[in-house]
Fold this sequence. Notes:
By secondary structure, the chain is α+β, with helices and mostly antiparallel strands. It is 40% helix and 25% strand. The strands form three sheets. The chain has a four-stranded antiparallel beta sheet, with helices on both faces. The protein has a two-stranded antiparallel ribbon with strand order 2-5. Strands 7-8 form a two-stranded antiparallel sheet. The longest helix is centred in the N-terminal third of the chain and has 22 residues, at 36-57.
Amino acid sequence: MNDVYLNKAPQFFYFRTRIFHREKSDKKAKPKEFHAEEKQLIWEKTLSALSELQDESGIEIYGLVLDKEGLHIVFSTPYFNENILILDWEMRLKRDLSIEFARPILCEPVGNHEQMKDLLMEIYGSQINIESNQLQWRNPFNSLKLIFDGHRRARLFKDPLRVVFQPSLVFEIGKQRSHASFC
């Protein structure tokens, strides 16, 4: 294991960033909406990079969403290295993709399990909708969908609070979000 990962102390974090498109000829990254194929590639590379980091550093991932606002990750690390992990993940993505990330790279501490649960409900709630008792995905690029669909990549995600590995709770998240949008 790398020396960077030696200071043990479990910490929970929320990280979000905007992702910008970068053409090889551009000096500056340009904000623009990514096409579906580009989003799919960013999503796949993000999952691969996080899987590698999980194996190397002990990072545990609780939630992951790629949407029009950018990328959201809820995670924990047993070491004081959250920003190093995020920079490592960023470098792995930039190696294969023509993208840039908004600065500064900051991880917000999540104080307790209740805050983590609220945060997960918030980021997942914007991804789903319930109409006529049917689950509809507003955005396919989220770990909740991977888990709900039983995708092989769902193993990357942990759920110590039992928030997302319960299909009935997924519907509750969607219903709360649907009712909130009518108020």
